[in-house]
Write the structure tokens for this entry.
Amino acid sequence: MEGSLTRAEISEKVIQLFVDIIGFIDRSQVTEQTDFIHDFKIIDDDLTCFVMQIKWQFNLQATQEDWDHITTIKQIVDLIVERSDLQCGPRWR
């Protein structure tokens, strides 16, 4: 990814990755408040693939402990804003 992204741009990229990886969910069904485990009953393999793509796409340095309590798109976006190695400008927050 080039340059810094706004929080809204990060959110949209995360949502699009989620929709693309999971495959059976329409984009219109997903918001930052989406609880991907409870709202869609996502299985572990799909969730693992999604997390790996998030880490790769955003160069995210996060531990398993960081992921243990994350269940929403918003929480993922917050983690990216907090921990990503991407350039962080004032546009992020």
Observations:
- The two ends are 18 Å apart (CA to CA).
- The chain has one domain: 7-88.
